Amino acid sequence: MTVVTCRCGRRFEAAAELAGKQVACPACGGAIRVPGAAAAGPVVTCPCGQSFRAQAALAGSTIPCPSCGNPLRIGASPAARAAAAARQRTAPRSTPVPTAAAPARTLGHGQPLAPTKMPARATRHPQWSFPLGWVVGVGVGAVVLVLLLIVGSIVWRRVAPALTSFVNRGNPAQYFGPEIPLTPQALEEYYRLPDGVEDTTALWLAAVEQLNTTAYVSETAGIPIVKNNPGVVPKSGITWPAEPQAVRLLEKYRGSLQQLYAAAEKGGAVRYPTRFADAWAMEMDEEAKIVEAGRLLHLDARVSARQGDASGTARALRTLSRLARSFDGYPNIVAQTAYVRFSETFLLTVADLLPDVEFSDGDLAMLSRELEQVDLDRSMYCSLIGELVNGLLAFDDEEMLGILYDRLSGRSLMDERSKQARALVDTLKSRSSAAALKDKEDYLRKTQTILAVAREPFPQKWESAKKFPDVAEPLDPSRKSPPVESLITSLLQSRPRTAFQDYANFTASFNAAIAAIAVERFRRGRGQLPSELAALIPDYLTQIPQDPFDGKPLRYRVESDHYLVYSVGANGVDDGGKQSDDADVLVKIRLRSSGESTPVARPSEPKMPAVPSAGPSGTPTPQVASTGLASLTEQQRKILYMRARLTIVSHERLMENSEKLHATLIEGRSGEFVDREIARYEASRRKMIEYFEQQMNNLYAEYAITRDELQAVLREGDAAGWK
To answer: Alpha-carbon distance 577 to 567, whole Å?
Structure first.
């Protein structure tokens, strides 16, 4: 007996005589080949994993796998295949296969094929089955790949900027956006006139054509204000020896003044000739004439005020303000310095003349609008843009380094470069490329921070600027600090905090002047001062001007002889209107009923009136009742005369010596050095005038007289020859 296994999983016993034959499975009717006595053939392995020995007669033919039914090719030698072919031609092709529905048959010796009970086995389909390990491996691999992509993305985000920064070290484009010019050519495009705006440059240049010439210089000698001549124009009622010469000068150049008035009325915008590729050595001849025009307008406003011409004074001041704004958008620190200085002159002159000139309400409203048009934030930003391009040129041009050093040390650009400048260039040339690159990177990084702060509004701008270190200018290349590696950066960015404080002071002063004009309009219209600035809204102000240092409304105080509008200043403390370097920034307007004191305005030191030999000027009248000259004996009047005359002569000599020393210091120099010396000189003049006024006040109080009565004593003593 032979045990046979069908594809359905059942096992049966077949009689020996059926060996090698194909029979039907009694269970499912499937074809089954009974192994056994037939000639042994090759061993065949199906893809399903089952192995069996095929009959030799089947060599070279294809038969179904007994297990899964897949076709199998039985291999054999050519001889075997030929014998098999012969047998197939002579023998029947197959034995009939019984079906499941056929009656039960016996297979040999009359014995039925008895089924053997075996567990059923599912039919396998290898073409659709996947090993579990392979599936798990693919899943784990996919998870690992996703994790690698995530981690790689995070690492790249962190590494890429550093890598890009390393590759582009010293490249300005990685620090600044496309809106910031980085080359002289880009700076020219930045300064281009906006579309749709009328160009009035020709009007301004035609108006100043005759100014700053040799003839003009000779005609301005001895006249204050014009051509940097020291001194001021006294108020009406005070003798001024230079008045006839000043009037003749204004009349001679009245045509230029009329052209300036017309250009101011026209409006539009101005774009002066430039060559930004020359950096600090750029010629600014036309701009120099504009500066002279501003001084002439200032003189015209002062003389008109002396003559009682309020409308002429307002017109000259408005033209001065608009001439200053002709430098709007000019990316050059010299031009922006002129813009700020002339705007400041406009502010100080308005504050000084406000108590004495009978401006109409319309004139005051116009002057207030002119103050509101001053854009100090834009001015500072334009300065920084121009200095950025010039600084980048300095890193690549040795000549520019020398010019930069000469400018900071106060030397004229026309002079041969100083030994210190040559030493600086030699020092920088001897640096390694790594040190030079670090210097440039420091400059770009710091400039990026400064520009970001400049774009912030007040008071955030001041809060950010306070974090900048404020160091002195490193004018000596042999200094140990700052290091040589950052020497150019230190030269270009020596005092950023001071620069921001100056602009905050300017902003506070302009805002205070706007409020002061509103107070004056209120006083003139209603006959009394407002109790607080809020009372000016809405008739004279839309809102109270802001203090740039703390963001709060400006402060306001009324005293017996003046009123103040002020800011808390850099120290952030309300000092009640007390002025010092970091204390309150204010505009002080005296009241008409309390004498002739001169108003004081910040941020820079104001120009104080000169004291002529005929007697004191700008001296506040004490609030005492006059006893009259009749109550003083002749001896008392003589003593009073000698004391007053000695005080006046001493003051005049002190002022004269100070003026000569100042002229000696600035002779042959230009640039920021001259600006600093002028500021120191004006501060010294103010202190000397304040001391002189205090001495005269003591005389008024001691003798219980007024200013006019002292003038009478001085005239009497001069006529009598009192010694």
So the answer is: 8
